[in-house]
Amino acid sequence: MSIDTLPPLRAVIAEHDLSARKSLGQNFLLDLNLTAKIARQAGDLSSSDVLEIGPGPGGLTRGLLAEGARHVLAIEKDPRCLPALAQIADAYPGRLTVMEGDALKIDPLRHLTPPIRVAANLPYNVGTELLVRWLTPDVWPPFWQSLTLMFQREVAERIVAVPGSKAYGRLALLAQWRSEARIVMTLPPEAFSPPPKVSSAVVHLTALPAPRYPAQPKLLERTVAMAFNQRRKMLRAALKGLAPDIEDRLIASGIQPTDRAETVGLEQFCALARTLEA
Ligand code: SAM
């Protein structure tokens, strides 16, 4: 049984001639039961506006609306998708607004009313760039209450990684400092059309009201970026550009100067960033 009265996605794609374009990272979800399931991972949508990036032919959009989203603002770069999205807007009067453009360039905030949740199945490079932006705003709490995002599984694992694991790095620290991050679903390549080369996973991040440990965002970001840029080096070497007395600062933060970045936890990185405050 379909989740709505609109045509199946295969028919929509055929009708609007939406052959997938590699240059736009187009791998579409065609199973509406699956997109409704992803939408449910985003939490209670009935009292939220949802920002969806990259709706494509609208599979996830329909899931979000069928699951009761108060209002969805969808930003899509490919103009070929707009007629299909207009049909969805007609089926859910007043609940879907579509903007054509590049999500990396558009500021959608004046079209959204808090509380705001973000949901997206995006090409992974655009997704990672947006995630880093959403995790590093000038003020916290951010505009979003939660992010529910599809990534290549390997990227999803980097977001939730713990110290000592191969996937642990800048993305894990940025994500976990001020959010709770979990992998809530994994999907095989066949869930998409055309199937990508690798598996995918949905990550759900909830913004914490305040950071887990105090630190100035810019100092923490700089420290972590430097530490993991040369992740195989001992930290006293990788971070020597941060301060002349970096060894003392590492020790004061509970870090051995001979440690490598991948063994150091969030609390210690925050302590180190605090030693750099003027
Ligand atoms: N959400 C749809 C789904 O799940 O079937 C489509 C997913 S497809 C992986 C990614 C979508 O993002 C495509 O529709 C593509 O055109 C769109 N897209 C790619 N880059 C974008 C950008 N910079 N801004 C907005 N949309 C973009």
Question: What would you say this structure looks like, in words?
Answer:
It contains eleven helices and nine strands. It has 278 residues and is α/β, with parallel strands linked by helices. It folds into two domains: 9-207, Vaccinia Virus protein VP39 (Rossmann fold, 3-Layer(aba) Sandwich), CATH 3.40.50.150; 217-276, Helicase, Ruva Protein, domain 3 (Orthogonal Bundle). Helix 4 (82-91) links the parallel strand 3 (71-76) and strand 4. Helix 2 (32-41) crosses helix 3 (59-66) and helix 8 (217-229) packs across helix 11 (266-275). It is elongated, with a radius of gyration of 21 Å. The chain starts with 8 loop residues before the first helix and ends with a helix. The model has no long low-confidence stretch (mean pLDDT 97). Its EC number is 2.1.1.182.
- Note the main sheet: 7 strands, mixed
Please write the string of helix (H) and strand (E) elements.
HEHEHEHEEHEHHEEEHHHH
| Spatial sequence of strands, sheet with the most strands | 4-3-2-5-6-9-7
Count the domains: 2
Termini Cα gap: 62 Å
- Structural class given helices, strands, pairing? alpha/beta
Q: Total helix count?
A: 11
CATH class of the largest domain: Alpha Beta
Number of strands: 9
SSE blueprint and pairings:
Elements: H1 9-15, E1 28-29, H2 32-41, E2 49-53, H3 59-66, E3 71-76, H4 82-91, E4 96-100, E5 116-121, H5 124-135, E6 144-152, H6 153-160, H7 170-178, E7 179-187, E8 192-193, E9 200-207, H8 217-229, H9 235-238, H10 246-252, H11 266-275
Parallel strand pairs: 2-3, 2-5, 3-4, 5-6
Antiparallel strand pairs: 1-8, 6-9, 7-9
